[in-house]
Design brief:
CATH superfamily: Glycosidases
Shape: globular
Strand content: 5-15%
CATH class: Alpha Beta
Number of helices: 15
Radius of gyration: 21 Å
Bound molecules: 5-hydroxymethyl-3,4-dihydroxypiperidine
Strand order of the largest sheet: 4-3-2-13-12-9-7-6-5
CATH architecture: Alpha-Beta Barrel
Length: 467
């Protein structure tokens, strides 16, 4: 049996995001977000739902903090809904919104749980989208103002801020592929949006630094390692292409102050840029974007295998077999987390790394006794924790881990049908119901260690984390 103990002080947490759990859409002066609007367009959300009520965390947050306490969590990664703070996108901030987050933060601190907020998990105020959204440079200015307001209000209590969550998703899924709000399909606009997201990160770091000089600052990038299907040059090139498009376009500007030349050339070849000059890049932008970070948040879910097909197209190989996939059709590949951590450490050397999201969607039923056994989620977590342990042994400065997610929630374009939570949320009562993985995670957190024991088909004590 392999057992890995984590270093003393390793931070165990869970993550959520505002649009996905809060609800309270029309309360406390909250404005409309791009996701509220997107969800009104028929066919955009697979199950026809919206997040007006979501997990009702807006009212149930004290109960959610109790749940975190019962798990022994050291930190809670949540996000702030920009439309709660600036319903009109700019002007005077909304006091009721600020009060909401202040109460949450104070209660977390009281419970001994470190608040670990993210400013942008994709819920742009719709009024800013009406003015062009992230394709407009002005949106980055508005984000800087929003960051300053939050730091002014909470800077004395927040030790670590993250600006954006997965800017690749906001730019590519939102502006290039159209699966996410605002649903555009324009690659050139997406590159512009990506740049303004990154620029706003740099400006926000500067603004928070002024208001809260001792705070640690970071950004969260998703990292998906790309492996070639074969050793052929064509397949190697396909993996290189994906890495540039998905990973390096975001990591390089922030951590090295440059856009990757090969990925720029790929975009020129695809006709998304007219030439190697980036039309949206202005003097000083890259310096702002690469403002030194105190930590980097990395989200890891899966890997991709790339090949070049008979028509010369770079494509992802369909993963399989079915039992190796989660409900998102993402391959379970814990080795990829090890590779991710090694790569990020070697290529970018951030001072500290946190795994800010990792988890698996499985829809496990409740049995007659009210129990939800989710052995596949436990196995997923266990194997990823073992990968983290190996990376730490190899010298990677990994300081903490946040499970995605505390609760089953609104999974964007999929609605509520993809369930990542350690807790289920009853559709009508919104009651939180612990899955077996919650008790299992509680035991890992309390031991600060994980072993490669086979996962229980039944984990004894899930009711121990019921309230
Ligand atoms: O639910 C999302 C989260 O909002 C951002 N990262 C990926 C998760 C799973 O898709």
């Amino acid at each position: 049996m392999t057992r890995h103990s984590f270093p003393q002080g390793f931070l165990w947490g869970a993550a959520t995001s505002s649009q996905q759990i809060e609800g309270g859409r029309f309360e406390g002066g909250r404005g409309e977000s791009i996701w509220d609007r997107f969800a009104t367009i028929p066919g955009k959300i697979e199950d026809g739902s919206n997040s007006d009520l979501a997990c009702d965390h807006y009212h149930r947050w004290p109960e959610d903090i109790e749940i975190m306490k019962s798990l022994g969590l050291g930190a809670y990664r949540f996000s702030i809904a920009w439309p709660r703070i600036f319903p009109g996108g700019s002007g005077k901030p909304n006091e009721a919104g600020l009060d909401f987050y202040e109460s949450l933060v104070d209660a977390l601190l009281e419970a001994g749980i470190r608040p670990f907020p993210t400013l942008y998990p994709w819920d742009l105020p719709q009024v800013l989208q009406d003015r062009g959204g992230w394709a407009e440079r002005d949106t980055a200015e508005r984000f800087k103002d929003y960051a300053a307001v939050m730091a002014r209000r909470l800077g004395d209590r927040i030790a670590q801020w993250t600006t954006h969550n997965e800017p690749w998703c906001a730019a590519t899924l939102g502006y290039e592929e159209g699966h996410h709000a605002p649903g555009h399909k324009d690659p050139s606009e997406a590159l512009c949006a990506a740049h303004h997201l990154l620029l706003s990160h740099g400006w926000a770091c500067q603004a928070i630094g002024i208001e809260a000089s001792r705070a640690e600052l970071g950004i969260v990038h998703i990292h998906t390692p790309a492996y070639p299907e074969s050793t052929s040059q064509a397949d190697e090139d396909a993996a290189r292409w994906f890495d540039g498009f998905f990973n390096r376009w975001y990591f390089d500007p922030v951590l090295r102050g440059v856009y990757p030349e090969d990925a720029i050339a790929d975009r020129v070849a695809a006709g998304h840029l007219e030439g190697p000059e980036l039309p949206f890049l202005k003097d000083g932008d890259l310096e702002a974007i690469s403002t030194p970070l105190d930590f980097l948040g990395v989200n890891y879910y899966s890997r991709v295998i790339m090949k070049t097909d008979e028509d010369g197209r770079r494509v992802a190989v369909k993963p399989g077999p079915p039992e190796s996939l989660t409900d998102m059709d993402w391959e379970v590949y814990p080795e990829g987390l090890y590779d991710t951590l090694r790569r990020v450490h070697k290529d970018y050397a951030p001072k500290k790394i946190y795994i800010t999201e990792n988890g698996a969607a499985y829809d496990d039923p409740m049995d007659a006794e009210g129990r939800i056994a989710d052995p596949r989620r436990i196995a997923y977590l266990r194997d990823h924790f073992l990968s983290m342990g190996r990376a730490i042994e190899d010298g990677v400065p990994l300081k903490g881990y946040f499970a995605w997610s505390l609760l089953d929630n609104f999974e964007w374009g999929y609605g509520f049908k993809k369930r990542f939570g350690l807790y289920a949320v009853d559709e009508s009562s919104r009651q939180r119901i612990p899955k077996d993985s919650a008790a299992w995670y509680r035991d890992v957190v309390s031991a600060n260690a994980v072993s490669d024991e086979p996962t229980p088909t039944s984990h004894g004590d899930s009711r121990a984390v019921e309230l």
